[in-house]
Amino acid sequence: MSEFYNSVYLKEELCMGCINCIKRCPTQAIRVRDGKAFIIKEFCIDCGECIRICPHHAKEVTYDAPNIMEKFEYNIALPAPSLYGQFNNLDDINILLTALKRMGFDDVYEVSSAAEIVSELTRKYVAENKDKWPIISTACPTVVRLIQIRFPNLLEHLLPIYAPVDLAAINARKKAMKETGLPSDKIGVIFISPCPAKVTAVKSPIGIDKSEIDGVLAMKEVYTILLPFMKESINDVEDVSKSGRIGIGWGSSGGEAGALLMDNYLAADGIDNVIRVLDDLEDQKLEQLEFIELNACAGGCVGGVLTVENPYAAKVKLKRLRKYLPVSISHYDENENSNTFWTEDVLYEPVFKIGNNMHDSIKKMARVEDLCERFPGLDCGSCGAPTCKALAEDIVRGVAKEEDCIHILKDYIHRLSGELSRLDGKK
After folding, report:
1. What is the pTM of this model?
2. Which fold has domain 355-427?
3. Which end of the chain is less enclosed by CB atoms within 10 A, N or C?
4. Across residues 136-148, what is the average pLDDT?
5. Residues 1-62, CATH architecture
6. CA separation for the pair 397, 185 (Å, rounded)
7. Which 8-state DSSP code applies to residue 56?
8. 362-390 in b/e burial notation, b at 16+ Cβ within 10 A?
């Protein structure tokens, strides 16, 4: 089984041991033991739902500080298109891109520019691979990881094309090496991310051997740094942007699918809706579709936990920014974009298995069912597991005990108390 990096982590000193996070986690990756939450690493898909729901701010994301740029002689910013929707009264993307250069970056390569190339490649791939319909978007790392650990029958439907951010990183590095003459290790390619999943995708990529991204900054942190530089840039704007309506549309839900210029698609956002679609797809209810776009965050990337703006307000801002732009500016060039398809197979990761083989698994599942019959079925979370079944599975795995269930414990105490009273009466 592969080793996976997780960017979401627990700040133990802030955790109060409440059960908000365990009830919200879509993969049941969190438990509360001894008054503190902990994350089961192999179950976690870095969706960030625990960050949203935690009232004590005990969940956080690992990302780089802006001083990472000091490590390199030449730095390139990769702004996600969702960044454009974070600012009020922004009517020219070049103001923002110029501000990034004033912030300290030597160049800017828009992820939205690479998204237009990916859209072009996807249109061709969908047309040429009808036997794999519906093709599932792989731009959201959380969705890819979810399919990898929970929906193995859908792996063959994944779009095996580089995500826009990875293609942008490759092209940005090539461009910088050609223009500056610097070796690759002197060039820093820094992504400005809206979510923890994209941080994880850099450290532990799926479908490719190694990411070309050297660092990841949080969008919410870059936002505050950029504001004063944007005010300065208004009167001295550089013409930097090289993306149109299609690329910028990727920042919100429906943008990727809409760029394919087809009608027979589905776009869903929000992790619960994504799981519902994947369940239906596994049950062969959506076979008539050509393409499925899935975003774990509500509203798409504008809804990531590292953003600052309300996702629906940000979506409106992106729509306004796109209004007078050309449909597309960046196009596929075979010489420039030689690396466009995944180089690694994405394999099923059976992280939820409870046995070493089929016979062992059947035996342990029977034990799980027996335990579930003993439990009250309230899914109260008092045991520190999200459901009675999850507790039963933990017991079978050897990481919990029956008395963790408060109802079982209460019965045990009553029996023990009765036995002590009986023994006392014999004296």
Report:
1. 0.93
2. 3-methyladenine DNA Glycosylase II; Chain A, domain 3 (1.10.15)
3. C
4. 98
5. 2-Layer Sandwich (3.30)
6. 45
7. T
8. eebeeebeebeeebeeebbbebbbbbbbb
* Burial of residue 55, with CB atoms counted within 10 A of its CB: 0-12 exposed, 13-18 middle, 19 or more buried: exposed
pLDDT tens digits, one per residue of 170-228 = 999 999 999 999 999 999 999 999 999 999 999 999 999 999 999 999 999 999 999 99
pLDDT of residue 4: 74
Question: How many Cα neighbours within 13 Å face the side chain of 296?
Answer: 26
Contact by Cβ (8 Å): 222, 77 = no
Rounded CA-CA distance 12/178 in Å is 47
CB neighbour burial string for 408-426, b if at least 16 within 10 angstroms, e if fewer? beeeeeeeeeeeeeeeeee
- Going by their DSSP bridges, the two strands 30-33 and 36-39 should be labelled as antiparallel
How many other CB atoms are found less than 10 A from the CB of residue 63?
22
Q: End-to-end CA distance of the chain, in Å?
A: 60
* CA proximity to 191, closest of 201, 183, 181: 201
Nearest 5 degrees, angle CA 334-CA 338-CA 344? 140
- The rounded distance, in Å, linking the Cα atoms of 34 and 383 is 10
What pLDDT score does 2 carry?
A: 61
pLDDT at 416 over 90: no
Query: Rounded distance, CA 328 to CA 331, Å?
Result: 8
Where are the domains positioned within the chain? 1-62, 66-322, 355-427
